Amino acid sequence: MIHLRDVTKSYSRGEQAVLACAVDRLDIDSGEQVALVGRSGTGKTTLLHILAGILRPDRGEVEIVGQRLEQMGESARDRHRGRHIGMVYQTFNLLQPFTALENVLMGALFGRGADGDARLRAEALLQKVGLADRMHHRPSELSVGQVQRVAICRALVNDPELVLMDEPLGNQDKATGGQVLDLMLQIAADDHKTVVMVTHDPESAARMQRTVDLSTLRGQEVSR
Amino acid sequence: MRLVSISMRNLRIRLVATVLTATSIIVATALYAAILTMAEQTKARYEGSIGGFQAIAGPNGASELELVLNTIFNVGEAPGLIPLEVCQKLRAGRGIGRRSQVRYAIPQARGDSISSFNFPVIATIDEMFTKFEWKRAPLQFDEGGPFSFSYAQLIEMAEQLVIYENALRAEVKPEDRPQRPLLQKSWRKCVIGARVARALGLELGQVVTPVHGKVGEFGSHEHPEASCEIVGILAPTNSPIDSTIYLPLGIHLLIDGHEQGVFIAPQIPGKSPAQIESMPTNVGRIGLTAVIADPKDHMGPQILRREFGSHPEAQVAWPQDVVPKFLRQIGNAADALAVIAWLVLLVAAVSITVAIYNTMNERRREIAIMRSLGARSVQILTIITAEAALLSFFGAVLGLILCHVASYALQGLVEDRTGVFLDWAQVRLWELWLLGGVTSLGALAGLAPAVKGSMTQVADNLAQNY
Known about the structure:
The radius of gyration of chain A is 17 Å and the shape is globular. Chain A contains 7 helices and 9 strands, in the order βββαββαβαααβαβαβ. Chain A is 35% helix and 25% strand. By secondary structure, chain A is of the alpha/beta class. In chain A, helix 3 (100-109) packs across helix 4 (116-128), helix 3 packs parallel to helix 5 and helix 5 runs parallel beside helix 6 (174-190). Chain B folds into 2 domains: 3-44 and 326-463, no CATH class; 55-317, no CATH class. Chain B is 52% helix and 14% strand. Chain B has helices spanning 3-13, 15-48, 64-73, 84-92, 127-130, 151-169, 194-200, 249-254, 259-262, 273-278, 300-309, 319-359, 364-372, 377-418, 429-454, 458-463; strands at 55-59, 82-83, 102-114, 119-124, 141-144, 189-192, 207-208, 211-212, 221-222, 228-234, 245-248, 287-288, 290-295, 314-317. In chain B, the strands form 2 sheets. In chain B, strands 1, 3, 4, 5, 6, 7, 8, 9, 10, 11, 13 and 14 form a 12-stranded mixed β-sheet that branches. The chains are: A alpha/beta, B alpha+beta.
């Protein structure tokens, strides 16, 4: 599912190049649930963006769902991300002017298409996460937990093979967040989806099948 | 959900900015449409209204254009008077036009009006309905028929007027003077145009009373003695004939207060105005505002041109020559106004660019989120360009509606001032072109901000909280 080889990504800060992320080797199988952990600044989010195809590595090989992302153009990577990858962010990144249902459909619009089937799928997902009566509410009218669930539905609406999560519990209490995360992982396990989650939280990491620590080892795997 | 729904939502959430930007598009489109409407309908009106008016004889002092505008299109005041002898000679085939053998020469006098619409009253003879040809056929009646006042009756009445007038000039004692001709009851009939009937709800048998001058103007007054029963309502011609009331010339000449203007004093070298005033007059000196005539053959116009070229009091104008020249002038003015309207549209387009460009900074995160969901640059470009295009489209639609509403509201005023009837309900093909043009211009205006938006850095902007 995911195969990374000798991947590095640097940013230029003035005349200096700052290494943001370096992974010698990373392999994640289909259906695996992996936590990416590490100190701040070790490049967890950068790696997540590389896996999503938002960033292109300076060098190395990135194979996601059978596609070599570093060889693809920006537009092809966008299309690939829309169809095969679902994303959940720390701040959830819902679009405020749109309702919960529209936010979920937005994922479909840029993924496999927001046709009638997508609408049915979106409604079914929202129903599954307990938001049947909140579909037509805007994010500002929902609680943090509800917003998180909408973000999860948006990530799943295209039935992606890979779900990437960036600190999905960052903005809420652990009890509520934990329940929603469990729900997400359950849905992913049922549908045999691969999940990669960036987190600082050991409890969240413990919910995953495997943990990769980017701060101590440049991409070497750490088993639980 | 479609990309265009996102564009629509973006316009809605920035409603105030959207409305303000759209206003400039509305005004510019309405302005451009109004200019095109006026130019087009003026052309149609003026070109379509000259059928039948082959030649117009009028006073020398006026320009040909003035003569045509007043006689056919009821625009402005009558530029002066010509003596009846011009009409007599045209009809008799002697003197002026003796070889032209006109098919008809119909005298007209104007100066009165009715109702607040200021529908003009034209005094004439029954040949206006029997011999005059509107687009090669006599005027048709929707209801009733013509009044009865012939050229012979005009001359007979004029002779009685001359006898009376000459007795006055000779200062004959009142008891020895002949009686002034009386207004015959049988003359008090009139024919009205289709628009007059429609606008005032007039029907056969009702009575209209002419007003001297224009209703509401200083010095205007009613002529109750000249009240006429409506005996005929003309079928629509889509020309100024529809807005005209025709009554017998006999009534016009005998209306109280018209005495001073009935006879034109000739200009005689070496005689003072007072001396001329006391000299005997004749039928030929009765004043008319115009004579409309139709030469029988192709030589007629040339002969009339030559002979009227040296006439001391009258000239002849040819609507077929004058109107196209006039329309070319209007066309040039309309072109100049159209350029201004396009400049206004251009300014409006720039305002769209500025308005959307200024929102790009605050929308970086929103765009980054869409990109992270898989939106390609070209889709972001489409969303923002569609916003500008939709804004322009709705602005253009409202601008066109505004133009039609304004045409409806100003219909009467414009017709009164220019003789052009604005058909507010007619939707023309060029309106679709204008709609497409303004929408495309808007889309072009949205390109610069769209390019900026499509180049938004996804990772950087996702990481920030604005």
